[in-house]
Amino acid sequence: MQATIRPMRESRTANVPAPDGEPRSPFEGAPLLETTFEGGTHRGRVTVAMAPIPHAEAAGWEAVFGTAMQGASPEEREAHSGFPGLLARVEPRGRGYNNWLGWIQFVNERDPRGTSFSSEHDPIWFLQGKEVPYAAVGYAPTFFDAPTRPARRAVLWEADLFLCTVPSVAPADGRPESPLEPLAGVRWGFRIDSDGAAPTPIAPRWTGDWAWASWVPVLRRRFPGWKFADRTPAVPLLGSS
To answer: Domain for residue 5, yes or no?
Structure first.
């Protein structure tokens, strides 16, 4: 049974409490987008919050860049601030391993003047070049991303993020056996209208099957040992009218 993406237009406010004595999460009080998903034995709810990241520490960039970020000057750290971050959570309603899921993200990045364009799969940094398509995977996994362009060059940066199933494996060799399917999709991003300008967030909105279909060829080329479900690009983008 193939999964069905069932987007909703509900929204409320994120509540991400901080431990005593710790700085509050940038996402606390941010508008919260939510939807339900159901596909075979997989079901639950997804919430997405977007908020500006006030400083490099709030993004945890030291975990990615290590000593390079630890030794950065205040000016270099300030250049990373103000870009939007995204936090996506899963509230599962399935049983056991049916709640093992993964997030996959792709990025379109282009110069607003139309002089350059790039389109690529966007894994978590330590899985770059590995045969794993996920940016986050686990039991009811949470996804976090805080893109940054400290040079502040003019750019339109948009990401397609999908909550996906984790495939079963073939007993003979342990390779993925069942096709990986999307359960929910969201598009979000930011733009810098001119060199040196501040980033402007692009609010997240739910996408349909058509968005997944546009990326399936990329996944099949990049991960030939995996199976990916097809989709028909016929579902309109919510909020585009």
So the answer is: no
